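Sample pair:
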Amino acid sequence: TTRYFMILLFLILYPSGSFYYLHKTIPNRLTSLLRKKFGFFTIYLSLSIILILLEIGIRVTGLVDWGDGMGPQQRDWRLRKYKLNSQGFRGPEIPIQSAKGVIRIMGIGDSFTFGQGVKFEDTYLEQLKKYLHLKFPDLQFETINKAKPGWSTIEEYNYFIKAGIIYKPNIVIILFVLNDPEIKKYVLLPLSGSYTIDVHLWRSHLYFYLVRVYNMIRNPYDKFIFSLFEEGSETSQYCYKALREFGKICSRNNIYPIMAICPMMVDFDNYKFIDLHKKVSQWGHASGFDVIDLLPYFRKSQISYRKLRVTSQDWHPNALAHSIISNAISEKIVDYLKNLRYFIMKCDTA
């Protein structure tokens, strides 16, 4: 686009302005020496070539492929051709009334449940349905994906109480991610001092990479995650309250609720968020959920976290990671259905 080429032009002209500024501020003896040794044009051309090579290098290595709706991949993230149904969710059209004898499983969550970066058939809900069909060939299963990228626990609860409950699911799964308590989304601090300017400059991969480095120092994401769970914070209070209300709804409607706590796709052996998993697990148990901490399952797989990401910089789980999630949740559902069958058989005998 015209805007994109204007940004590239800015990146080429920027060194000349910087060099002119240095020429005016550093001692004349030094600038004279530089001009004599190299010449203004040579220095300018060298700086421009370095910038262009860095831009190409960052693009080739994919260091800015960040799956959070910000950066040079933003347009692709927004316009990626996911097939959505008329309700705006991923997957086929689901009738309000289920067929007789069908066990409905609803998955509610954010981009992890949505399956950002993976094919629909590779999402954990679809893999779960296939496994349950094999395990119980005499039963019918239907999975409903009710997830949207960026949703918090509060937004998930609000959707379920207003619209999700009318589907009358037999089982509801919340795939909890550690940024789910957020009320205000994490936003990168602008390098230029203006977020609006940075949004335009992000078309340059090199510039966005510099923004990322700047935020690693000034606004680290880890610090943001820990802040969500601080005692007495609004985020932790509202999240816990939403989970409690969610559990009450499930109890009143005879719905089996599962909470699966998904780890961040970082080093599982030196994982720094274990205490947060424990806190969320306590919230889930107190709210009436059957809780699964998925971290031990990822550790048990002995697969490097790097091989479980969509890309090296996009921390969303890939198809392989979704299969680990699916296998862990299936254990809970299989036990639940076996116990349910035993209870029904016992009642019929009586």
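The chain has 14 helices and five strands.
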